[in-house]
Sequence to fold (136 residues):
Amino acid sequence: MKKIGLISAKRISPGCVEAVYVNRQAAGAQVAEAFFIANEAVEVVAASESHSTADSGTLTIDIVKEASGAAAGASTTSVLAATFDGKGTKDTPQRKAGSGTLASKQLAKGDRLSFKPSAVGGELTGVIITVELKYI
Fold:
């Protein structure tokens, strides 16, 4: 049975919200997983990621936007300016700005955000992602 990640959202300032995703998937079993549904139109400002065990292979971690009804990870629309490096130094946060393409980083009510690794991540574990969003 798949372990569901811990997900939370909180208001961080007027007009802004923060969505937090804690991945509980096992090493070698990393797959796309939806973690946020927009309750109204929002825009991705930035995102941060860290992991407790780095992957030794080539692995990137993306956050993609998906419309209602789409399977997690089916989208190729990244909300980030660049992907996170799954080989990056463990326990060291990486920060990425929202996409430079306005349409890519804006979510309509009902759109979702999904964690999307480029591969299963042989050693990757302990992924934590924080996404800063502003209401538009």
About this structure: The beta strands are 6-13, 16-22, 33-37, 42-50, 60-66, 84-85, 94-97, 106-107, 112-117, 128-135. The first helix runs from residue 102 to 105. The chain has one domain: 6-135. The radius of gyration is 14 Å.
